[in-house]
Amino acid sequence: MQLTLEQARALDALERNGTLVGAAKALHKGHTAVLYALKQLELQTELELLDRRGYRLALTPAGQRVLEGCRRLLDAEHALIATCAELKSGWEPSLRVVFDGLLPSLPILRVLGALREARAPTRVHMSTEFLGGVEAAFLRDEAQLMLAVLAPHTSALTSYALAPLRALLVAHRDHPLSRMRRELDAGDLAEHVLVNVRGGDPRLALSTEALDQRSTVVLDDFHAKREAILAGIGFGWLPAHLCARELRSRELRVLRFAAGSEHVFSPRLYHRRGPALGRAAERFVRALATRD
Fold first, then answer.
1. CATH number of the domain encompassing residue 119
2. Taking the complete model, does pTM exceed 0.85, yes or no?
3. In this predicted model, what pLDDT tens digit does every residue of 193-218 receive, in sequence order?
4. Around Cβ 86, how many Cβ atoms within 10 Å?
5. In this structure, are 174 and 254 located in the same domain?
6. DSSP character at residue 152
7. What is the pLDDT of residues 34-64, one digit of tens each?
């Protein structure tokens, strides 16, 4: 069965206008052209769609049901026309964004929410990775935007500064390291479990990089790492925004490590050089980027 939009429009116009002449006038066609489209629709559906017994053509019950489907086709046509017009105005068809789970997610998700409120036609796909895994996903998934803590190896990228990110070396208040009154050295830390997240990288340049650790735990994300530290399993680095409440309540404490207990990262938003960004990608840049 090969229905056409012209046939769907003819049936819709007949029902809306009540007469063949009215339908023809609404469609800016001759009434014979409209009648031909209706006959072809009946042939295609193999159904009697029109009741011809009265003075005026009327839809049969089967015609009413087919009309519902025809109007769904016409609605889809209108939506497609609108989408094409929006895409011509600079909206990209799709946008892939990968960001480091170290970063606060709420500002990033707010941009997505603003795009939905603006009824942007761009289909946005977002994913989270950690540290070295961010660039790997950016390349593998051919993403357009990457928000990364680590500087990428990939060349030919344009970048914008994001808000600085503080990380703190913390442990539960009951952890032996938290109870030590003196400044801690590498030997003190080496006796305890260091909790890490997959994708760690020497480019982080953390003060604990050179530790000769006897025991380590490697987890999939920073939320799991936070829970392990809260449970007293070990100590480790956490983004300040993920442990602010526990630091205020003193459930977690910043360790007094001689080599440094705080690190400030300078994350950046990256995209490939070349064609200009679409309107959705520009929204992310405007909302998240800070001045260099």
1. 3.40.190.10
2. no
3. 999 887 667 777 788 887 777 778 88
4. 15
5. yes
6. P
7. 888 889 988 888 889 888 887 788 889 998 9
